[in-house]
């Protein structure tokens, strides 16, 4: 009762393997971008620096007279 793997099987196997690899790469890249965005949002929160002294960049001199 041995069955041989047909050329049709290998063709479908190759197509599904390439599709799975492509999907894995796309999902991995998407989650990496999402993780980086979330980390950047956490770093930029103003509440972390609420007690800190203001820097020169936060105060602008008025140009109008």
Count of alpha/pi helices: 1
Largest sheet properties: none
In total, how many beta strands? 0
How far is the N terminus from the C terminus? 96 Å
Work out the strand percent: under 5%
From N to C, what is the helix and strand string? Answer: H
Overall pLDDT score: 81
Which segments are poorly predicted (pLDDT under 50) over 5 or more consecutive residues? none
Helix content: 55-70%
* Structural class category: mainly alpha
Radius of gyration from the CA trace?
28 Å
Give the CA-based shape.
rod-shaped
Short summary:
The protein is mainly alpha-helical. It has one helix spanning 7-43. It is rod-shaped, with a radius of gyration of 28 Å.
